Amino acid sequence: MGFNIAIDGPAGAGKSTIAKKVAKKLGYIYVDTGAMYRAMALFLLREGVDPENTEVVNEKCKEADITIRYEKEEQVVYLNGENVNAFLRTEQVGNMASVTSANSNVRKKLVELQQKLAANADVVMDGRDIGTCVLPDAEVKVYLTASSKVRAQRRYDELTAKGEVCDIAVIEKDIIERDHQDMTREISPLKQAEDAVLVDSSDMTIEEVVETIMKMTVTGEI
Ligand code: DC
Fold this sequence. Notes:
Blueprint: E1 4-8, H1 15-26, E2 29-32, H2 33-46, H3 54-60, E3 66-71, E4 74-79, E5 82-83, H4 91-100, H5 104-119, E6 123-127, H6 130-134, E7 140-145, H7 148-161, H8 168-184, E8 197-200, H9 206-219
Parallel strand pairs: 1-6, 1-7, 2-6, 7-8
Antiparallel strand pairs: 3-4, 4-5
Bound molecules: 2'-deoxycytidine-5'-monophosphate.
C-alpha cells in the first residue's frame, strides 16, 4: 500500500488545483477521480443514453473501458482507447457526470480502478467519496470546501480564461444543484469522513491551503 492522501469536497472547492500542487511537492501521483466519472458521462452522452434510466446506464457503462496513463506528469484518461482529456471539462459533461455517477455499476467499476492505482503508488486522490469509501485507510484525509459564491466565481474565472462565455448566476445555480445531487444520492454521497479535517478555503489562498495539507502530511499536525 502506498501513502495515500484523500481530498474530498464539493465542485469548485479547488480540490484539483490543491491536489496537483501537493502531489508535485511530495513527488506523488495525482489521481483525478472526477475525470473518470466525466469520461464515463462523455461515453453515455455520445451513446445518447438517458441518464435517468438506471437499467440502461447499468448495462451501457459496461461497454466503456476507462484507463489512466501518466504522460508528461499529466493524468490522461483513455475511453475505449481514445485520449478524451480535451472533452471532459465542459458544463454539459459535468452535469451528466453528476447524474450518472449515482449509478451503482458506474461507481463499482471506477472505484476498483481507483483502488488499484492507490495500492501500488503514493497518491493524492481527489473526489467525493475518497476518504469515506475508496481509501478508508488513507493516512491523510481532507474535506475541502468553500462557499457556493466563492466556488462559482472560481469556476467562472476558469471558464472565461478558456474563452468560454458564461453567466455567473447560472454557474452558481448549477453548483448548488450539483452539491445537492452529490450529497443526497443513495450510494457514496458526498460527506466529510469522520476522521477527515475540514478546510474551508473561502478566505484562503491556494498556497495557504497547500501549506496546511503539507503540514498535516509531514508532521501529522492539524
Ligand atoms: O470533480 P468533478 O466536477 O470533476 O466531478 C464530476 C462529477 O463526478 C461530480 O458531479 C460528482 C462525480 N464524482 C463522484 O461521484 N465521485 C468522485 N469520486 C468524483 C466525482
